[in-house]
Amino acid sequence: MRTLRFRLTGPSTGFDAMMSMLEGVDHVDRIEEVGDLGGGMRDDSSSAELADDDMGDVHDVELHAVSDHWATQARELIEACAMELGMAVEFVDEF
């Protein structure tokens, strides 16, 4: 489990803060946004993009830690930070 894949949903300022925080963590080899970098775009015409339809941007992120222990620590940190920033986080096996 050295590699964590997770999806963050929320404001871009929260995403930027999360990435900055994770880049400063020792024992994290790599952190990067992957996948569809235009993630927040809807592919249907059923919404007029009204305020209550806008849940924020969606970012797919991959993190690699030096060991399973540090991956677990990073996961706990991501969960706590997401809660503090008002973001939703979903850990996935693959995007």
Structure overview:
The model has no long low-confidence stretch (mean pLDDT 86). Helix 1 packs antiparallel against helix 2. The chain is α+β, with helices and mostly antiparallel strands and 95 residues long. A 4-stranded antiparallel beta sheet has the order 2-3-1-4, with helices on one face. Helix content is 32%, strand content 31%. The chain has one domain: Ribosomal protein S6/Translation elongation factor EF1B (Alpha-Beta Plaits), CATH 3.30.70. The longest helix is centred in the C-terminal third of the chain and has 18 residues, at 68-85.
Structure characteristics:
globular; alpha+beta; Alpha-Beta Plaits; 31% strand; 95 residues
In short:
By secondary structure, the protein is α+β, with helices and mostly antiparallel strands. The protein has two helices and four strands, in the order βαββαβ. The protein has one domain (3-43, 50-92): 2-Layer Sandwich (Alpha-Beta Plaits).
**Overall outline:** globular
Per DSSP, the total helix count is 2
Strand order of the largest sheet: 2-3-1-4
* Straight-line distance between termini: 16 Å
Total domain count: 1
Q: Would you report the number of β strands?
A: 4
Low-confidence stretches: none
Strand content: 25-35%
Secondary-structure blueprint:
Layout: E1 3-10, H1 12-23, E2 28-34, E3 57-65, H2 68-85, E4 88-92
Antiparallel strand pairs: 1-3, 1-4, 2-3
Helix pairs in contact: 1-2
